[in-house]
Amino acid sequence: MKYALVTGGSRGIGRAVSLKLASMGYTVLVNYVSNEAKAQETIDQIKAEGGDAVLMKFDVSDAEQTREAISAWQQEHPEDYIEVVVNNAGIRRDNLIVWMSPEDWGSVINTNLGGFYNVTSLLIKPMLLHRFGRVINMASLSGLKGMTGQTNYSAAKGGLIAATKALAQEVARKGITVNAVAPGFVRTDMVEGLDEAELRKLIPMNRFGEPEEVANLVGFLASKESSYITGECISINGGLYS
Ligand SMILES: NC(=O)c1ccc[n+]([C@@H]2O[C@H](COP(=O)([O-])OP(=O)(O)OC[C@H]3O[C@@H](n4cnc5c(N)ncnc54)[C@H](OP(=O)(O)O)[C@@H]3O)[C@@H](O)[C@H]2O)c1
Q: Which of 11, 58, 62, 205 is the pocket-test mutation for ligand 1 (most atoms within 8 Å of CB)?
């Protein structure tokens, strides 16, 4: 059996990525932090399509919780390893920096960037031993361009892109690729409350993206077909920024 872990797989982009990886033959470990009902919906959808998936609850920003959950899985599956990890769990807490609380700075950095470290540092060793792995990090247009009201989120995503490039070089000789995906506006809970009618005027394709469009790119990066691509950050934004 082949295993993939998708952090934040309960909703939005993570759900679409979980469905995509399941359709590629992976048993998907669907991580979430609080929304069990939504995570279960992801599992049910995967099973309805003939795939296999299990729930894996932990807070990616909490190193101890992450270690406990992943170690427990590893002990139950001594012959297996997680060959694909999609570091997708993310939050935003937007504010101009003059009003940004230390909590909103910290939680965004600890989830979007700290989560990458907490998860990936545990999974990379088995990938090295098996000489195959795929690490895919969900960055953002904000991490490339920077966005007003998002110094915390832009810093976290920019850091994630830099970490992607560094780790790619560390493990390139061992059959492991490390890439990032940088979506623009994608229709999920995260963009609720944004003025879509106004924002789409800025997007050459004149629409928000769909989670499945991001999932198709992640699926390609997870596949063997992407074997010579590493250390890249691929934008998927309808032409908004390149
Ligand atoms: N939507 C966009 O326009 C857009 C654009 C660029 C980048 N992105 C990035 O794409 C990723 C997915 O975004 P989305 O739009 O699909 O967001 P979303 O619909 O708000 O879903 C966020 C997911 O992350 C999980 N999560 C949040 N904090 C977590 C934590 N501490 N530990 C574990 N899981 C956690 C949530 O779990 P629960 O359900 O349990 O809360 C949920 O599954 C994020 O990294 C986001 O920054 C999104």
A: 11
- For 231, which DSSP code? S
The tally of CA atoms less than 13 A away on the side-chain side of residue 229 is 18
Is 170 within the bounds of a domain?
yes
Which atom of ligand 1 lies closest to the CA of 11? 43
Q: Does a structural domain hold residue 120? A: yes
Which CATH number does the domain housing residue 230 bear?
3.40.50.720
| Residue 165 CA to ligand 1 centre (angstroms) | 22
Range of the domain at 89: 2-236
Give 16-74 pLDDT, tens digit per residue.
Answer: 999 999 999 999 999 999 999 999 999 999 999 999 999 999 999 999 999 999 999 99
Strand partners, 178: 135
Q: b or e along 3-24 (b: 16 or more beta carbons within 10 Å of the residue's beta carbon)?
A: bbbbbbbbbbbbbbbbbbbbee
164 lies in some domain: yes
pTM: 0.98
The total number of structural domains that make up the chain:
1
Identify whether 199 is part of a domain.
yes
